[in-house]
Each structure stands twice: as C-alpha cells, then as structure tokens.
Amino acid sequence: MGFRCGIVGLPNVGKSTLFNALTETQTAQAANYPFCTIEPNVGQVAVPDERLEKISAIANSAKVIPTQLAFVDIAGLVKGASQGEGLGNQFLGNIREVDAIVHVLRCFEDDDIQHVSNQVDPIADAEVVETELMLADLESLEKRVPAAAKRATGGDKEAKILASVLGQALDLLRDGKPARLTEPKDDKEARLFEQAQLLTAKPVLYVCNVAEEDAADGNELSAKVFEKAAAEGAQAVVVSAAIEAELVAMDAEDRAEYLAELGLDEFGLSRVIRAGYTLLGLQTFFTAGPKEARAWTFRTGAKAPQAAGEIHTDFEKGFIRAETISYEDYIELGGERPAREAGKLRQEGKEYLVQDGDIMLFKFNV
User: Fold this and answer.
1) What pTM does this model have?
2) Chain-centre distance of CA 291, in angstroms?
C-alpha cells in the first residue's frame, strides 16, 4: 500500500529544502525565488521504526526492509491559483492525487529570504492556501451536485446518494468550511465521498518551519499554528528545515552529537512520519525470518485477510489463517520458537483485527 503526502505551501517557506532533507536527496531544486519546483518531485522515505531492528536481531535476518512513505514536493501556491494565477490549476491537480497534505508554514524571520507577501504570518499563509483549495472544490461541486441531482430524478440510485453527500460538502464550502467536515451517514456515502477526491477533504499536517534556535521548543509563531491545528482536529509538528538539510550531509556519529547539542532527540523526519501515520490512521505489522525482517503498513481496523493482501493479493484471496505473535511477546520471549512453546503464538482467522506491532505469518491456498 503506497501512501503519498503532498508538501504544499506558499513560495519560499522551505518546502523544497524540507523535501530534500526528508528524502535525503537533492532532486528538488531549492532556490530563493518563487516556483523553483516546476514539476512535482516524489521521494520515497523509509519509515524509522526501532522495533524492526530488534525483530531483525532476534530473527537473525539477512535483510531489513522498512515500510515507506512517499513525499511529493508540489510547487508553491499563490493567491488566485484556483483561477489560474501563478502556475495555476496544474498544482491543484497534483494535490488531488495525494492522500494527505503536509502544509509547510514559515515560522522564522530572515531578511535575506523574501516572503511572497512581504510579511511573516503563518496563519495568514495557511488561509491563502486553504482558500484556494476551497475555491477549487466549490467550483467543482457547483457543477457536480446539480448534475448528480438531475441523474437522481431519473432513477439513478447512486446519483441520489452522491448528490446527498456532495451536497453536504457544498453547503460546508459555501459557509467557508472545508469538505473534510462532511459526515457520511453510511459506508456507501463514505466511499462515494472519498472517490470525489475533494482537495479540502484530505487530512492536513501543519509543519512549522522554524529557525535553528527554535527547533526544540518552537516559538510564538509555531504556537499559533498549533492552536489552529487543535481547533481543526489537524496535526502539527515543529521542524527546522535548515537543521534537517545539515543532517543529511553528516555521518551517523556526527548527527547524534549535533542533535544532542541542539536539545533534540530525533530527526525531524521521525516527527513528520509519526504525525503523518496518525493523520492517515496507519499502523505497522511485521514479518520476520532468516531471509528478511520487513515492516508493512495497514490502515487501522484492517482484518487479517486485508493485511495479508498488503503482501500479495493471492494471500488475501486464499487466506486460511494468520499465525500471530504480539511484538511484546516476541521480544520478551526471544522469537517465534519460544513464543510458540510458551503458547503465545495465536492462530487468528478472517475476523481478526490486526494490531500495531503484530508479527505475522499468513497461511493461504490459491
């Protein structure tokens, strides 16, 4: 299962610098002028998880394969983007293709880096981008809802459901609220709503890009962003893109020393990944053996066959059972064999809800 987080924000807030650091690449051009990213750049990021290393050590695995998350660096939006200003609607289309929005906000002062509106105000910046996304959704739904309603009068049952759920979203947008506040009444409405791919229906993670001296505790500007996120039920993290860029060029020992000097105990990547996982409702299960120890991503609430399908569709189609050990038991007892002998290896069927950290072996027949 591939999850894509689109990095958005106004020009010169640190999007591409953060992208380069997070993905440990220089594939996105980071320069001090608007629209330096003309096409969206995509970077696959290994999800850090110390549990995987511990599992690998016990299983004596030859390879360790973490799960991954994709970051898409999308060029800066400006006021009027929904009407074609700046580089226009092509970037709104790029946002439509991601699962979550990572909204980078400038929370630092620097006279050498111009701000597109000549003032540092992360809340105002957030509102500019949000307004453009809302306007784009509003324009879309003002065409789609009447069309669905017309089909519904002709007896199209699915169109009736679509008109209802998208009509609710349209009312929210007209009130200046994002479509993510829509409340589908059943699974069918939820499915059709998700398929609509509305920009403001996507979950949002605010990344407060601060100066190096504020990386540990943030500042007054980032505090305002956290208040905004809390009011919206969104997520927020503090990151210094400048620090992350420096860390990329260091070896492991120097990185650890540098982080300690700054009062930090982890990479900015780890905070962003953890917040992104929470935002998307993601968890991790593991497979382990002498060939490899591997982490797999699944959506919270998935049953065993769905988790098996993350490995291969045949596993889901021919699912028989899942031999399952909790992470805690696996570590405490020292692996699969002692867990089996202690009665901690469970045989789980099709209705088992997979838990974060489960070590699993799937039995299937195609």
Assistant:
1) 0.80
2) 30
